[in-house]
């Protein structure tokens, strides 16, 4: 059953409607203030046209060392674009490129932290896999940085063709297997 968070505080709105307060909650509408969201989206769109949409996310399926190297490169690229922005260079949108590189570096950092937490939480004698469901198929995916995985355009992490047979990752989904896997 879905839980609804409750601060215990209420506000009454028009017509007698009652809601929880917004106190202490992030206001995502604020990111639309100013020009940067549009400029960042334009930068991301140009990158998608040049490389492929979400190309930068492919490294998330690589080894820890490759992710660390990609994060270091993103930081260097951020520093370069920040310097160019500070100098007033106008050959490209250096502020948007800096945003992109910060986001990329933070995504890589989050993946490294998630992997470290998973490795600490999983007993060393058990296989390190993450399970997820797609349609009627239960997928078993290594979470230890095994190469050969990619994030598809729909945001789902999938094995490359070679890994489907190599890891035998596709298993029949049954409710018992799904529950045993702790499916999310």
Give the key terms.
alpha+beta; 2 domains; 3-stranded antiparallel β-sheet; 7 strands; 43% helix; 15% strand
Explain what the structure shows:
The chain is α+β, with helices and mostly antiparallel strands and 184 residues long. It has helices at residues 36-50, 64-87, 94-121, 161-167, 175-180; strands at 10-12, 18-20, 129-134, 137-142, 149-151, 157-159, 170-172. The protein has two domains: 34-121; 129-180, no CATH class. 43% of the residues lie in helices and 15% in strands. The strands form three sheets. Strands 3-4-7 form a three-stranded antiparallel sheet, with no helix packed on it. The chain has a two-stranded antiparallel sheet with strand order 1-2. A hairpin with a 2-residue loop joins strand 3 and strand 4 (137-142). The radius of gyration is 21 Å and the shape is extended. Residues 162-176 have low confidence and may be disordered.
């Amino acid at each position: 059953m879905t839980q609804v968070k409750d601060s215990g505080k209420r506000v009454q709105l028009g017509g007698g409607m009652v809601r929880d307060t917004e106190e202490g909650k992030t206001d995502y509408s604020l990111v639309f203030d100013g020009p940067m969201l549009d400029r960042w989206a334009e930068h991301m769109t140009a990158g998608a046209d040049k490389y492929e949409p979400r190309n930068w996310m492919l490294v998330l399926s690589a080894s820890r060392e490759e992710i660390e190297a990609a994060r270091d490169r993103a930081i260097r690229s951020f520093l370069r674009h920040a310097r160019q922005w500070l100098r007033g260079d106008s050959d490209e949108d250096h502020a948007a490129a800096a945003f992109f590189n910060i986001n990329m570096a933070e995504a890589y950092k989050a993946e490294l932290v998630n992997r470290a937490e998973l490795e600490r939480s999983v007993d060393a004698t058990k296989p390190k896999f993450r399970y997820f469901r797609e349609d009627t198929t239960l997928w078993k995916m290594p979470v230890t940085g095994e190469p050969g995985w990619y994030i598809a355009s729909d945001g789902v992490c999938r094995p490359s063709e070679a890994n489907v047979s190599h890891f035998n990752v596709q298993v029949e989904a049954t409710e018992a297997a799904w529950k045993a896997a702790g499916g999310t």
